[in-house]
Design goal:
This protein has a single domain, classed as Rossmann fold. It contains 10 helices and 10 strands. A hairpin with a 5-residue loop joins strand 5 and strand 6. Helix 1 packs across helix 10. The longest helix has 14 residues.
């Protein structure tokens, strides 16, 4: 999930992960956003004060971060991913504390190395991998989601959000074999959908409506699928998952 900050990436990715898990998939949620979001949207509660993956990293003789001996992607997920509802496993790179990035640099480096080895780990061949990336194109451009077959750009009906989505999609499509689709979020009707499509220059795959049930869930820090399971937004995200599964 990519796009502008505040566009709704975490809500949509967390709800997608829950839908996939309820449909029978084993799900690994991958959170590389340094700001809070995905854990709450999954219903897993607040982020841990210290990223578990920090224990997977060490510095070599030259002061460079590396994974500790014996830690590969399978062991990293088993040891350092945390549990989320519906059997989901959540692996996080960590959240920026008051002191800045330095305290979590080990976890950030470990996360980057783990995600680059996921495709070689046959354990995850039949898993659904759902990633929540931070705002903007930087992580997309620098390979923070090498596991991704499809990038979902979330865009609100504003010029700023559309411009960010267009840039991110363009970067994502530069990677051979990757596809990128657009999802309009917090739309109030067909006019908003048409406005988004005009701004981005192509059709959207899904249009998630502005939904007071989801808004209340976010204010309370509760997963939307738990707080408002029958809401129109959750229903549209379910349709989105089906559309992505159908290619």
């Amino acid at each position: 999930m990519v796009g502008k900050g505040g566009a709704g990436k975490s809500v949509i990715s967390g709800t997608m992960a829950r839908v996939l898990a309820r449909d029978g998939s084993r799900v690994l949620a991958l959170d590389s956003d340094l700001l809070p979001g995905l854990s709450l949207s999954l219903g897993a509660g607040p982020d841990p004060p210290e990223p578990p993956l920090r224990e997977a990293a060490e510095k070599d003789e030259d002061g460079r971060w590396r994974l500790k001996k014996g830690i590969g992607p399978v062991r990293a997920v088993r040891r350092y991913a945390t549990d989320a509802p519906d059997g989901i496993r959540l692996l996080q790179c960590g959240k920026t504390p008051r002191e800045g990035l330095e305290p979590i640099m080990g976890a950030v480096n470990a996360f980057y190395r783990v995600v680059h080895r996921l495709e070689r780990a046959r354990t995850f061949d039949d898993w659904a991998l759902v990633g929540d990336l931070p705002a903007g194109p930087r992580q997309v451009a620098f390979g923070w989601a090498p596991y991704a077959q499809t990038f979902v750009a979330v865009v609100q009906p504003t010029a700023q959000s559309a411009l960010a989505a267009r840039r991110v999609v363009r970067v994502a499509r530069m990677r051979e074999g990757a596809r990128a689709v657009l999802v309009a979020n917090r739309v109030t009707g067909p006019a908003d959908v048409r406005h988004v499509e005009k701004l981005v220059g192509e059709s959207v795959l899904a249009a998630v409506p502005a939904d007071e049930g989801v808004a209340r869930a976010e204010r309370l820090g509760i997963a939307p699928i738990d707080h408002a399971p029958a809401s129109p937004a959750v229903a549209e995200i379910e349709r989105l998952v089906a559309a992505l599964a159908g290619g």
